[in-house]
Design brief:
This protein is α/β, with parallel strands linked by helices and 314 residues long. Helix content is 44%, strand content 14%. The two termini are 32 Å apart.
Amino acid sequence: MTLSTHKAFISQANPSHSLRAQEAIAGFGMDTISQAGSLDAKLASMAQAGFSQVMLSARDLVGHPGGVKAAVAAVRASGLRATGFQVLRDFEGLAGPLHGYKVDIAKSMLEMCAALDSPVLLACSSVSRHATQDFDAIARDLRKLATLAMPLGVKVAFEGLSWGRTINEYTSAWDVVCRADTPNLGIGIDAFHIFAAKTPLDAIDDLDAERIFLVQLSDFMWQETQSFEDRMTTARTFRVFPGEGAHSEALAELVIRLEAVGYRGDYSFEVFNDDYQQLPLEAVAERARRSALWLRDEVLHRSAPLPAWVASAR
């Protein structure tokens, strides 16, 4: 299937098809932000679509009617494993009381992350005007965050927001991760921010695959974002699943480059979309499933796993 054919498939396929228990789509997961509804309903629709993992946010836990413990229990009962937990914002580069405040926030988020058995906490680059722009100071704070996470068995993935004050590309995020030089601090790759900032993909080849802790995939419908404000609006309201947008070729190249450097981790679909918030959960999960199958079969050319009953009979 070509990329153009896939786009037509995505737009024309009937989203009302009833989802059935389908083969697990190994290596791919959805972000809860991509759907409307309760956490329990989201988890059920993802599992029914064949996903085996989920990217969770702090709001999923603290917003659950039964509280954090009930939310954690719901995730475990769903059979889905946590890809990661998000998002710690504006942590690095602060001083005095602001720094102390953010350290307390980070400790609470790390505790929730550990309760979920999530391997990764996502921290995104600061947009605060109160934060220093000194790379060494930023690296020092990230090293401190990673040190707080280490006793809990949590890794920290640092992501450069395309509207970040100082760190706004994956290349500069990688710079400070290398400066921090601590084993449980790595980089988070987000396709949206790469395409929005127009960061060349060549630098992917310079990354250490062992330090890529999270990869989030999404696309959007136009080629350019003209300003930081445009990037923020698009990012928060109109991302689409891989293969649905204007950057399918670049997204395929990104995934292929990641595989070429040795990345063998998970791919999570982080799709903020106001339209998807008005669709049934099953319809959104089906769109995500078609994207995962396109990436698996047409981009990565991976074989589908054998059904459990066949594998056990061997």
